Amino acid sequence: MGYYLYDANGYVGDLASNHGLWLMSKYVRKVSDEPQAKQFFEEGCAPVTKKLIAGLKAINCPDKDIADTIDNLVNLLAKCDTVAIISDGTDVVSPELTIHRGTHEIGGSCVELCSNSGNTRLIIDLGLPLVNADKSPFDWGIHRKSTMSQLLSEKILPSVDGLYENDKPAITAVLLSHAHLDHYGLLQFVHSDIPLYMSMGTKSLAEVSNVFLNTSVKLDKVKTFEMWQPFEVGEFKITPYLMDHSAPDAAAFLIEADGQRIFYTGDFRGHGRKGILLERLTKDPPHHITYLIMEGSMLGRDEGLYPDENSVEQALHDLILSHKGLSYIFTSSQNLDRLVSIYRAARHSGRTLVIDLYTAFVLDKLSIISPVIPQFDWKGVRVLYSYYHAQKLADLDKPLLYKYKSAKIELEEIRDTPDDKVLLAKDSRYFRGIITKLKDSSKAIAIFSMWHGYLEKSDLEQFLESNGIPITEIHTSGHAYVSQLQMLVNALKPRWVIPIHTFYPEKYSEMFANVIQLNDGETINLC
Ligand SMILES: [Zn+2]
Q1: Ligand 1 center to 183 CA (angstroms)
Q2: Domains of the chain and any CATH numbers
Q3: pTM
Q4: Is the dihedral of CA 355, 361, 362, 366 positive or negative?
Q5: How much distance in Å is there from the Cα of 107 to the middle of ligand 1?
Q6: What pLDDT digit, counting tens, does each position of 288-317 carry?
Q7: From ligand 1's centre to the CA of 278, what distance in Å?
Q8: Is the pLDDT assigned to residue 24 strictly greater than 90?
């Protein structure tokens, strides 16, 4: 059993083994002439004073092990605030952690932190699974119409008492890291009395998804937070950190709970347009992290052909420029980094970027987080209206249809002048219809700019081939490479690392010391 040093804010560092502490204590009490040092070991706690530190420093022990233990104590005392406490952790108030889902899979993340008093229960993320129990792809379409009790019994909704609409509310708040469905896709089932915390950008995307993806997030319950601005939820203090990810305005969280400092990474990377954020975080990290709950999507995955978003933009540009005809680019309209890359690649190749109404609405909504996000009325951007999208927007707010009209483009115009167009496409019936209609007007190419796995799941490649359209993949991952995971752990120096959002949690202990590998639904005391 080990002993740790705590201060008034919680854990400071590992102190010594049981035996090591006994040897140090015995020696200090025997030789030290500084009463404060003796008293510290008699009582196991003391105010941190210069005299205490000087008294310990003055000890010259010939036994190297004892001398090292004293040195370690002196270093830890220098990091303490006003008080130092020696403890094995058993008498320290500690919160409980349960990862309801995500310990052995990517997607469906749901984490619960409960304070020692039981008065604060925080849920972090509540996502749709990406895989079934047998790891086959999860299809929400099959379950969409299920009742809440069916979803609970099929374990699609994680079993969390007091969280859902059919229960008496007992959760203090739900905190969202970012707007990817595998992190927030089950939010619609949360009891309407429970507040939902998210960033402005995440809220904007949730609004868009409510209109186009039927996510039914209760927007009136949303409270937005500012990055790096701490706020309180019950007994917990939460500081969001802006992270580089393929979803805009994604957050990691430092959660200070019962003296523990827990860092939840959410999804992140260091090679997107905001890669600098990971660099900054590792250069100036939050200190004394006791538990790091870290995603590991890239473990066991190929890193892909393009190392970063800049090389994606360059490759898009080169391919578009080298081709004399219409270019279709398949991507997610909510991957802001990619939309910016596509916009820039199109502009720098002298092409007009044609987006759909849904994408125009996404960009418009995100203008709230930055003025440099390309918009429908920017030079070189046109908007293609589909009946389905127009209907959805009209149901929400009819004037929006008129707002985007100034940039509207008709299919005939694309058919007449296809060669200077880059068309943002989706693998949908609507776009397959457009591709078929434009088939004879231009020698088109297609660029697949999403995770390769999506291409494998669909017959898009065959469809394009049958229309004489060659497809090229240009993509970089939204998730941290192994080297970036190591960079973060080296910087944060957490006492424990807990794997989440990975298919290979067992690989963590090959890379890091002190890994706690949990199972879904297992509760541990964070002490
Ligand atoms: Zn994500």
Answers
A1: 7
A2: 2-87 (no CATH), 96-302+479-525 (3.60.15.10), 309-473 (3.40.50.10710)
A3: 0.83
A4: positive
A5: 8
A6: 999 999 999 999 888 888 999 999 999 999
A7: 16
A8: yes
